[in-house]
Amino acid sequence: MKAVVKYALEDGSTEVRDVPIPKIGPTDVLVKVDSIGICGSDPHMHHNNVSYPVEVPLILGHEFSGIIDKVGEKVEKFSKGDRVTAETHAEYCGKCVMCRTNNYHLCQERKGYGFGVDGAYASYVKVPERILHRVPDNVSLEEASLTEPLCVAYNLVVNNMTVNPGDVVVVIGPGPIGILSCNMAAIAGASEIIMIGTNGDEKRLEKSKEYGATTTINSGKTEPLPIIKEKNEGYGADVVIDAAGPAVTLKLALEAVRPEGTVNKIAWGPKPINYSLDKIIEKAITLRGSFSHTWDVWEKSLKLLEKGQVDLSGLITHQLSIEEWERGFELVESKEGIKVVLKP
């Protein structure tokens, strides 16, 4: 089968190769891939510009959907022909304290699709039954391939922070995670949601209005801090989400949040920050990170799709063949594309 393979830890060391169809074990299924979402981390991996470990050679891709083609002999709840999507946690021990407290996404032995285990930029992918999820009948497989970023936003806003009705929420970074974080904050009841982008983000800032943003700011043209500081009697936002990553956006988040407020960092930023974090003490800020998701988050996110509370189709700007993966990466990096879906 054709697959997009990252074959060395060097910039640009990615290509389409012919590789064997995966062999499944007794508790696995073989999924015939229908749609693959390009995550912003995929081009970073292509350019070898990530701060987390990557095992090579491996097939990229962790956002996907498809149809079960074959089931292992011990698979109990799924059958050939089922429409499915899957979590990114291809491997985890299932025995440690993290796994036993439903934090298996933080297991030391966790290996994710497209990072430590062959992913879904291919015709077929092997998936353990324990991370499979059925796609509702009224949800397209293209939409279902984007369930993973919705789960990231759900886990961030619902499980890893508190957004109360009436809150002022600031989101920095109008990528798919940032846009979906707007959506989740709106569902949670936030009264004002301010999305901050920069030059080149115009299309994404406009799209964020469809997903709950009440105000958008291009920081390349307008200084956002004075606008945010008008909120809550001059104290700033109740909650700030850093969905951009660079040191400068975390600094803005710490300045924009009110005393006793919360800053949640969801985006990776591998470079040193080179400034004081004393704002955390001065304002008694809660600063935390959010990573990935768990089984229950996936089921609830799929319920949101089924009931029409979230529409992922609005984020899909391009569909390309898997052979056009490099063009897809360029669309994401240039910000011309919001979500690009590949087809095997």
Automatic annotation (TrEMBL):
Gene3D superfamilies: Medium-chain alcohol dehydrogenases, catalytic domain, NAD(P)-binding Rossmann-like Domain. InterPro entries: ADH-like_C, ADH-like_N, ADH_Zn_CS, ER, GroES-like_sf, NAD(P)-bd_dom_sf, Zn_alcohol_dh. It comes from the Bacteria. Keywords: Metal-binding, Oxidoreductase, Zinc. Its cofactor is Zn(2+). Residues 12-342 form the Enoyl reductase (ER) domain. GO terms for molecular function: oxidoreductase activity; zinc ion binding. Belongs to the zinc-containing alcohol dehydrogenase family. This is Alcohol dehydrogenase catalytic domain-containing protein. It comes from Iocasia fonsfrigidae.
